[in-house]
Amino acid sequence: MRRTLKAAILGATGLVGIEYARMLSQHPYIKPAYLAGKGSVGKPYEEVVRWQTAGQVPKEVASMEVKPTDPKLMDDVDLIFSPLPQGAAGPVEEEFAKLGFPVISNSPDHRFDPDVPLLVPEINPHTVKLIDEQKKRRDWKGFIVTTPLCTAQGAAIPLAPIYMNFKMNGAFITTIQSLSGAGYPGIPSLDVVDNILPLGDAYDAKTIKEITRILSEARRAVNDPPMQEVSLAATTHRIATIHGHYEVTYVTFKEDTDAGKVREVLENFRGEPQELKLPTAPEKPIIVVDQDNRPQVYFDRWSGNPPGMSVVVGRVKQVNARTIRMVSLIHNTVRGAAGGGILAAELLVEKGYIE
Ligand SMILES: NC(=O)c1ccc[n+]([C@@H]2O[C@H](COP(=O)([O-])OP(=O)(O)OC[C@H]3O[C@@H](n4cnc5c(N)ncnc54)[C@H](OP(=O)(O)O)[C@@H]3O)[C@@H](O)[C@H]2O)c1
């Protein structure tokens, strides 16, 4: 039996914060013990939160008061989940790490620090070793681990096993992303209702940058050398769905590659979280569907167990001898943020980085 760990959720009223509150309220050994905010400080959680997710505000957190984002008030907290907005997150996370807290961040601010893991637990679990270097170099008692952009994860989770098992040449990705990806209140309705909103070159570029780092760290075994360079491009869009990023990817190969074999590799993909049977690890990180008209955002975004933790891949088709097409769907605030953060914490507990 594990010791119960007390977690603080920063940005607890935000769209990622509410998924942390929902998932941790049911967690076997990580409990939501401190809900932090900014504008909503001093009020009961259920009074201020916009519960834009499944179910009701859990009774475990409903009457908790939202408190300031202040490490001095968190003496009895064991770890920090930080879905804070870009810009606000960076210095706050550093302050917590300096004081000895393990910080799991969903924000972009530290994703490209060379000593900070950009962790997808099934793909690059060996990168947690960067924590040792980070603590030493910065003279910190705690540390920061980040999780990638939800959009990058939606493509990278299925691309990683393909990259690890075939001679991949490149991938061309088109995304159709939900509104919750932009936080609350997010995009003005007049920009997105009856519309498809291009997210622009900067968003395309950051998606590619993150997928490149994740793939370059993907290994079949811990000591495998880095694999071949690939050429990636993305075109990103937002539409008026609430949750779920839908991504169409054309993958090209350096040699003839059979779509059936690619489908098999995706279907059989498992990682360390599955071997370790971590509580938030879905049995299948990737669920492959064969119906021609699936995945669909409305029906498939909560796939897996825990719900929303599996990426659904469908429409795996041979385009020509060296090209396949596939579609993937990720629940952006669950697997792409809070669920991914909780799975990262479980891996860190298992590896002794969180005690
Ligand atoms: N949404 C997604 O699908 C997704 C996926 C992956 C990663 N992320 C990343 O996760 C982070 C949060 O996203 P979100 O969608 O949850 O945003 P959000 O809905 O806008 O929520 C932001 C939260 O942060 C709090 N906050 C704002 N400024 C603060 C400050 N200066 N100090 C302390 N707390 C502050 C707010 O608290 P009050 O309400 O109390 O003011 C609110 O709870 C972002 O960095 C985003 O890039 C989001």
Automatic annotation (TrEMBL):
One BP annotation, GO: methionine biosynthetic process
Active site residues of this protein: C150 (acyl-thioester intermediate), H245 (proton acceptor)
EC number: 1.2.1.75
Cross-referenced PANTHER family: ASPARTATE-SEMIALDEHYDE DEHYDROGENASE
SMART domains in the cross-refs: Semialdhyde_dh
CDD domains: ASADH_C_MCR
GO function terms (MF aspect): aspartate-semialdehyde dehydrogenase activity; NAD binding; NADP binding; protein dimerization activity
Domain Semialdehyde dehydrogenase NAD-binding: 6-131
UniProt family annotation: Belongs to the aspartate-semialdehyde dehydrogenase family.
Record field: catalytic activity: 3-oxopropanoate + NADP(+) + CoA = malonyl-CoA + NADPH + H(+)
Designated name of the protein: malonyl CoA reductase (malonate semialdehyde-forming)
The organism's place on the tree of life at top rank: Archaea
Alphabetically ordered keywords of this record: NADP, Oxidoreductase
Record bears the keyword Thylakoid: no
